[in-house]
Amino acid sequence: MEATIEVSGLRKRFGPTVALDGMSFSVQPGHVTGFVGPNGAGKSTTMRVILGLAAVEEGSALIGGRPYRSLRDPLRHVGALLDAGALQPGRTARNHLLWLAHSQGLTAKRVDEVIEQAGLGSVARRRAGGYSLGMRQRLGVAAALLGDPPVLILDEPFNGLDPDGIVWMREFLAELAGQGRAVLVSSHLMSELQDTAAHVVVIGRGKVIADTSVAELLAAVSGDRVTLLTGAPSEAVRVLSRAGATVTASGQGALTVSGLGAGEVVALLGAGAVPFSEVSAHRATLEEAYMELTRDAVEFRATR
Ligand code: ADP
Predict the structure, then answer these.
(1) What CATH code is assigned to 5-212?
(2) Conformation bin of residue 39: beta by default, left when phi > 0, alpha when psi is -120 to 50
(3) Nearest CA to ligand 1 atom 27
């Protein structure tokens, strides 16, 4: 089966609320695709539609070219983490996974493999009721991996993770995608997807605002800038502005320079005999790219 997700023209209302308003995008194998938008934008609803858990008024959602409902042994085609809270508290993680595996004809050996992969080895025989949200997220990912599926759909897998957990999850998702899977990961925070997603689908109010590679997104932002500490700010502004830079004061003798590289800034200050104590380059972050991208999307901002 092809490792792809294709969503086309989804429309869905909940009473008077338009949840999906022509949602269309596709997810390719081999990299993590971030699915980003503010709370209420329609991420969970889209994922539930893809997984056959919610109906739409219009449009289609296909996994490997087929609707979810037509898949035999769905866990072997697609793994999902939707609501990590939804666990039977009295059951151990291992028993939870054994129960899922059994329902799909998968082995206990596979259960132990995914427990190891998700880093749950030390707690797998404890009752899930005592798990932190981070542990539940790991258990949810372990469950998603049971059938070794080519497609993974994870709704807010970073929720509740501590900083180490976030790093772990990023690396794990990148590794799973590197194995040739299509990995769709939602988040309401673009920053969580830094260093993981190679592609992002940004949504607002039930439709796609941007569908772009992260490299293109970062290249399009003017966020690359240089921070400069100097005792002679007005001279620095004069010299750098003349060379075409935009310079703004950011307090305490610090200047923010855009439009020139750090090397050029140093050379110009040197040539102009302008004293400075520090020059540091700052690369645009994914979060900044996101802010810039959505700055003009009035409709989108209204939902924040
Ligand atoms: P996200 O996952 O991006 O936070 P959702 O898909 O959960 O967004 O929600 C999209 C919109 O649909 C929101 O306005 C939300 O309030 C509404 N919605 C979602 N599920 C339901 C539901 N079961 N009943 C009524 N409204 C819902």
Answers:
(1) 3.40.50.300
(2) beta
(3) 14
CA 44/CA 46 separation, integer angstroms: 5
State the residue for tokens 């900044």. 288
Ligand 1 pocket residue status of 42, Cβ below 6 Å: yes
pLDDT tens for the chain, residues 1 to 304: 688 999 999 999 999 999 999 999 999 999 999 999 988 999 999 999 999 999 999 999 999 999 999 998 899 999 999 976 667 778 899 999 999 999 888 999 999 999 999 989 888 888 888 888 888 889 999 999 999 999 999 999 998 888 888 999 999 999 999 999 999 999 988 888 988 999 999 999 999 999 999 888 877 775 678 999 999 999 999 999 999 999 998 877 799 998 888 899 999 999 999 999 999 888 777 888 787 777 655 444 444 4
Ligand 1 atom closest to residue 44's alpha carbon, by position in its atom list: 2
State which ligand 1 atom lies nearest to the alpha carbon of 39.
4
Cα distances from 287 to residues 134, 136, 140, 223, 293, in angstroms, run 23, 26, 26, 10, 10
The rounded Å distance from CA 138 to ligand 1 centre is: 24
Q: Answer whether 40 contacts ligand 1 (Cβ < 6 A).
A: yes
- Distance (angstroms) between ligand 1 centre and the Cα of 25 equals 19
Per-residue tokens: 37: 């938008």
- Could you tell me the residue ranges of all domains in the chain? 5-212, 224-283
CB 45 less than 6 A from any atom of ligand 1: yes
**Hey, CA dihedral for 232, 233, 238, 240, is it positive or negative?**
positive
Say if ligand 1 is within 6 A of residue 187 CB.
Answer: no
Pocket perturbation via mutation, ligand 1, pick of 11, 44, 51, 201 by most ligand atoms within 8 A of CB: 44
CATH number belonging to the domain at 224-283, selected among 2.30.30, 1.10.760, 1.10.3720, 3.30.70: 3.30.70
